[in-house]
Write a structure and sequence with these properties.
The chain is α/β, with parallel strands linked by helices. It has eight helices and six strands, in the order E-H-H-E-H-H-H-E-E-H-E-H-E-H. The structure holds iron/sulfur cluster (SF4).
Length: about 190
């Protein structure tokens, strides 16, 4: 019998493999991020697709929102619930010598951002509280903080004494961030 599994895994934000889960109108690729996925397959990673926390909470017709609107006890609980089955897989792989090489999130997302996320102190309520769309967009900014789901993941891993590097495809600069991810993972593989 030939045993050739590489015993190394990557966890990906759901929409990196299925763009259809994203808020309508946001999409820089047709289905999956081919350049990243083909790299991972070529390098022998098994891929675990994380659930999309927003799709499972608000569905496909949701509006785009910011971190402050999602950082509620209810959404945090939802994130914990959907991550639990994945966490149990991670614990089991970890105990049995498999390498969890990275979690790849989506920078800019209020849920899956790793190092930055979208923020607004005032978003929420009726749209006619504002005069124009430009006024609404003027109150949107990027801040250096994780999205709610990635924060929950990081806490849950910490509670179990598991460390997994967190990387991200940047919604604003996908090509550069994918090049960085490839470089980081290549470096990891050489260790
Ligand atoms: S970034 Fe996260 S929350 Fe947003 S669509 Fe992708 S998986 Fe869903």
């Amino acid at each position: 019998m030939v045993i050739n599994r590489a015993k190394k895994l990557i966890l990906l934000s759901h929409c990196l493999l299925n763009v259809n889960a994203k808020v309508n109108g946001l999409a820089r690729y047709k289905g999956a991020v081919a350049e990243l996925i083909s790299f991972l397959v070529d390098e022998g990673f098994g891929i675990i697709q994380l659930p999309c926390p927003e799709m499972g909470y608000w569905g496909i017709r949701r509006w785009g929102q910011v971190r402050e609107q999602m950082n509620t006890p209810f959404f945090v609980r939802h994130c914990r619930q959907i991550f639990t089955p994945v966490l149990e897989q991670i614990i089991d792989y970890h105990r049995n010598g498999y390498r969890l090489a990275a979690i790849i999130g989506v920078d800019g997302s209020p849920s899956c951002g790793v190092s930055h996320t979208c923020s607004s102190a005032s978003w929420g309520g009726e749209l006619d509280n504002w005069q124009t769309t430009a006024e609404i967009m003027g109150e949107l900014q990027m801040i250096n903080a994780p999205g709610v789901f990635m924060e929950v993941i990081s806490q849950a891993l910490g509670e179990n004494g598991i460390e997994i590097p967190m990387l991200a495809v940047d919604e604003a600069a996908p090509a550069d961030s994918i090049a960085d991810i490839k470089k980081t993972l290549k470096g990891e593989l050489q260790q």
